[in-house]
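User: Please look over both lines:
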Amino acid sequence: MAELVRVAVDAMGGDNAPTEIIKGVVEAVHADERVKVFLVGQEDVVKKELAAYSYPAERIEVVHASEVIETGEPPVNAIRGKKDSSIVKGLGLVKSGECDAFVSAGSTGAVLVGGQVLVGRAKGVERPPLAPLIPTENGCSLLIDCGANVDARPSQLVQFARMGSIYMENVMGVKNPTVAIVNIGVEEEKGNALVKETYPMLKECKDINFIGSIEARDIPAGKADVVVCEAFVGNVILKLYEGVGATLIKKVKGGMMTNLRSKIGALLVKPALKQTLKAFDLEEYGGAPLLGLKGLVVKTHGSSKSVEIKNTILQCITFQEQDVVGKITASIAAAKEEG
């Protein structure tokens, strides 16, 4: 039997912790025999929740952590001051090599700071970006960066493009993924100073399938597999995506309940509509990895339900088996030698 992929999961982080977190963990170990989960959190609370489920005991282990980092706490102070928190202990398991990955729905700031300070950047990586998969007409695209570096430099955006390409090819199975930079037009001369300086640098990269600029309206159409931007722009895109998606679903459901005829029509289209809306549900794509670290750290939505936790854990298996960390490190090193 192949060696198990070991994933540490923050049982105490997120709006729905620990109930939905633990439910997702149980669903993950039932879904795939290749994973073992280390649930990090307050032992009595975690074990009480686990008691409601049947699961292979040898593949879920509880790691006690007495403290919890709250969303509103200053990240640096929290990481330094709460050494026995579920986030710090979970990241510590990745740093020591006891676990291959860490997953948390808790404080984004604490996960980002802790990932860089405790796990550490891979050699040659300037800044680790946060990179969620977002649904598109063709499947999904990788939005990189969406929250880690609001003031990125051109050289960092080039690294984001390189790391994103490796992720899409090895984790999502997209051969020679297309890469585009977010811009206010498709012409090369358009954009702010950052985009204008980055564009020609991306064109020169032989290992990146760069197709030019992409406007925000073309992202949902899936016109690029990897969508590159600095975190300010990326976070705006992600939040707008979530807001429009939720509003559209609400309006569609409301419209179907207006009268008897629409209700009858709703019953007829419900199966097809449910399948279509599922494809545009961000939870189906798992969490956002913080790429460019020495180990895998994944941040899920604070409002994550069990399905997103399960999918994120399963995502970690592919990430580990494809040695994405090793491939990113090798690619960055090769690019530095050429440059």
